Amino acid sequence: MAAFSSCLQLPFSLLHSCSQSPFFFPTTHRHPCSASVPPANRRLYSDGRLSRVFRAVNKAARIVFCEEGGGSGELEGLNVGFRDVCRWESARAHHRKRELAECRAQIASSEVVAEMENSSAGAYGALSQVCAVLGTQWGDEGKGKLVDILSQQYDVVARCQGGANAGHTIYNSKGQKFALHVIPSGILNEHALCVIGNGVVVHLPGFFEEVERLESNGVICKGRLIISDRSHLLLDLHQTVDSLREEELAGSKIGTTKHGIGPCYAGKAIRNGLRVCDLRHMDTFKDKLAALFWDASCRFEGFKYDDLLLNVELERYKVFAERVEPYIADTVHYINEAYRQKKRILVEGGQATMLDVDFGTYPFVTSSNPSAGGICTGLGLAPKCIGDVIGVVKAYCTRVGQGPFPTELPGQDGDTLRTAGYEYGTTTGRPRRCGWMDIAALDYSCQINGFSVLNLTKLDVLSALPQLKLGVAYRGRDGRILPSFPADLKTLGEVEVRYEEMPGWQVDISTVRKYKNLPAAAQAYVERIESLVGVPIRYIGVGPSRDALIVKD
C-alpha cells in the first residue's frame, strides 16, 4: 500500500504544477463539462488533458497494486477509492447539465427527429462543429448506428479512410435495415450531404450497386453524395491480386476480406495507382491501366491477361467515367469551405484502432489509419478543426479473421455471445470471434485517439450471461504487468490476462431508455469500464434500432 501512496503523490503534484504552467493555454472550444469543474481547473479539463492525467494515474495504481499481488476485489476497492478522491478534480459528475440529458435518443418517430433538428440544446446538439466517430477495438462495434443518429444534427457526413471492407448496418425510422459499405451512414438524413474523402479507396461497380440499392428503397443519393477526385480507384484487378496474395501466404494468411483494399493502398504507396480524377483523362487512362495489369502479371504467375481483357476493362471504365462524373468533387475544398461557413461536419471512421496499420496488431490489420490521425489525412482537414472524438466500444470484444485476441472465448460462452449478438460480418458474413471486454486494449485505444466520450454498444447482449469478466491487465511471461499494449505479437500471444469478475443482470434491458432504469449490475459494469479507462461513457446501445440508445447524464 505504501507503493501505491507514493504512486499517487507524483501525479497530484504534477496535476497542480500543470494547472499553473504557462504552457496550459485556455482552449477556445469550451468542453461541455466545464460548468461542473472548479474554475481553477477548467482550462485543464477543457482540452482533455486532465482526463489523460487521470487515466495515467489510474493505470499506474492498477500496475502497482497488481504487482504487489492484490486480488481483483482489492483492486476494485482501490480504484473506487481513488476515483472518490479525484472526483471533484476530474469532474466525474459527467458532461451535461441534468436538464440537457433528458433529451434522449428516441428518434424512431418523425416528431422526435424534427424536435431534435430544431433544438441546439439537445443531447446531441451540444457536440462540436466537427465531430468524429471512431472504432476502438477490431471493428464491428456499431459505429454506423451512432453516425446515423448524430447525422440528424450535422450538415456534412464524411468517410475518411478504408473502402468497401467496412460494413455499417443501420435502420431507418420504419425499422428498415440498410447495409452500407463505402457510402457514409448519414445518407438516411435527407438534409445531410455525404462525402467520400480522399483517404477512401473506391470500387466503382460496388459503389453503383450500393447507390442502386438505396435509391430502390427511396433513399436519394444524387445531389447528396460526392466522391473526392483524389480518391484511389479500387479495380477488380486489386481483388484478384488480394486473393492470390492470400493463397501465397498459405498458413500465414492475414484473413483479409479479399476486397482488394491492401493491393489498392499498396499501389497508392508505390505511386502507380489510378485516382478518380484520372477518369477525366481517358486518353492516358489505358496506359496507366496497362501498367497495373503488367505489374500484376510479373508478380503473380497465376495472373494472366491479354489485350482483349485489357480493352474490356477499359470500356467498362469509360462508362463508369460518364456515370460517376456528377459525383466527383474537390472534397478538400468543399470540406474546408463548409468548415469556414460554420457548417457542422460529422466524420465516420471505418474499421477500428486495433486494425490500424500503424497501431494495430500488425500485420493482422487493415491498410489505412482508422485512428484519429486518419481524419486529417483522409479529408484534408486541419487538426485544429477537430473537436469531439467519440469512441465506439462494444460491451464485449469481437474480431474477424486471423490475429491475436487475448480475451477470446472459444467455448460455449463465445457461442452464446455470437448467437445473441448476431456476430457475423456485414461485408463477408463470416462468424466473428467473440471474447470478454479487453480493458488493456481499450485503454491503449483511448490514449491514441484522445476520446471525449465513449459509446458502449450491445450491452443488451450480455444479459444472457450470469457472470461477466473484464480483462483489466496483461501479465507477461516474467509475471510482471505490462505497462502498455505490446507491439510484438509473440509477446502478445504469451500474455496472461488478469480478469475482474462482475455479476450479470440476466434480465432483458432492450426496452430501457433511461440510465437510472438499468439494473444495478448493468450500471456497475458501465461505471467500472469508465473508472478503468478514465473516459466517460455517454451513449449506451441496448439494441439495433435507432431508439435503442440511452444517453447517460
Which segments are poorly predicted (pLDDT under 50) over 5 or more consecutive residues? 1-121
Mean pLDDT: 81
Helix fraction, binned, reads: 25-40%
Query: Main β-sheet, in a few words?
Result: 10 strands, mixed
Q: Give me the count of strands.
A: 19
How is the largest sheet built, in terms of strand order?
9-7-5-2-10-1-11-15-18-19
Number of helices: 18
Give the end-to-end Cα distance, rounded to a whole number of Å. 34 Å
Structural class given helices, strands, pairing? alpha/beta
- Overall shape: it is globular
Strand content: 5-15%
| Rg (CA only) | 24 Å
Write up this protein:
By secondary structure, this protein is of the alpha/beta class. The chain contains 18 helices and 19 strands. The chain has helices at residues 2-20, 42-46, 49-67, 72-90, 98-101, 110-117, 143-150, 204-216, 236-249, 261-269, 282-299, 307-324, 331-340, 373-379, 412-420, 439-449, 489-494, 520-533; strands at residues 130-135, 156-159, 168-171, 177-180, 193-196, 201-202, 225-228, 232-233, 328-329, 345-348, 389-394, 397-399, 433-435, 437-438, 453-457, 467-475, 496-503, 537-541, 549-551. The strands form five sheets. It has a ten-stranded mixed β-sheet with strand order 9-7-5-2-10-1-11-15-18-19, with helices on both faces. Strand 3 (168-171) and strand 4 form a beta hairpin. The longest helix has 19 residues, at 2-20. The chain is globular, with a radius of gyration of 24 Å. The two termini are 34 Å apart. Residues 1-121 have low confidence and may be disordered.
